[in-house]
Amino acid sequence: MKDRGGAVPAPRTRVQRRPVHGVLLLDKPLGLSSNNALQRAKWLLRAEKAGHTGTLDPLATGVLPLCFGAATKFSQLQLDADKTYEATIRLGVQTSTGDAEGEVVATHDVPPITPEQLASVAAKFTGPMRQVPPMYSALKKDGKALYEYARAGEEVEREARDVVVYECVLQFVPGSCDSVLMRAKVSKGTYIRTLGEEIGQALGCGGHLTALRRTATGHFDVSQCVTLEAFEALTEQERIAALRPVNALLPDHTRVTLDADNAGRFLSGLRRRGDWKDNEHVAVFGSEPTALLGTAHIKGGELIPGRLLSPPEVAQILESIT
Q: Which residues are marked as active site?
């Protein structure tokens, strides 16, 4: 689900910025935009550089990895990662945005629906599919976010995109006949609001999301996250300690370690030769176990640099650990 902006201002007190490197797994709270959550965490850490890895609407909560310093160089890996969501679909009511933030545009009677029908519809929405992005999204057309067109009452043509729903499970909210719980694991670029609307249509009555929670992104899940309230309550040293190392973003990369001489040459962008098998995804470290140098790939015994940390970044990371 994509960020449509937020109205909650970040703290404005001037702070002395400093280099901070690592990943904060934040459980984003309800009512806060992803960018505003990022700015609050950045302010609390006094970090010079930060970015998030896949937006959540203010209505949504859950896993939001925030990258600081050198970690921002590898944030694309999380943007591309599969994600898992839990959502509540209110059947029989359609809104302009596909969620509870929009205006009601149509209502329908909810027909009797059996668990078997829910399972059948869930199966139809599992697998590869083409999905048209919603007008109320941050996707840009001609340099302008789609939600800006939507707020101006304009609808523009959007190209359908290939997405994959790896898993979709539907069940009624206990004690309810018009609210459905959905659990879905999806590829990047999948709009859960659109998926919820399409499921409502398939059930013959339409629907919209009333709640959304991201429970996992890539190999990170919500059990590993800290709330913004809990993070604010920590001391400055505890906040730094709560960060995961930059290489936490590279769990599927094969580790290669270089001695000091080769590490320096690699950091300057030079290829290194060694007895290595071809590999597309490599994380390169210096002689210090925590000294991540960057990513690379191996072809024909050559270690070919990809995204590299700068020497000052490597030094700052080692200094922060010691």
A: 57
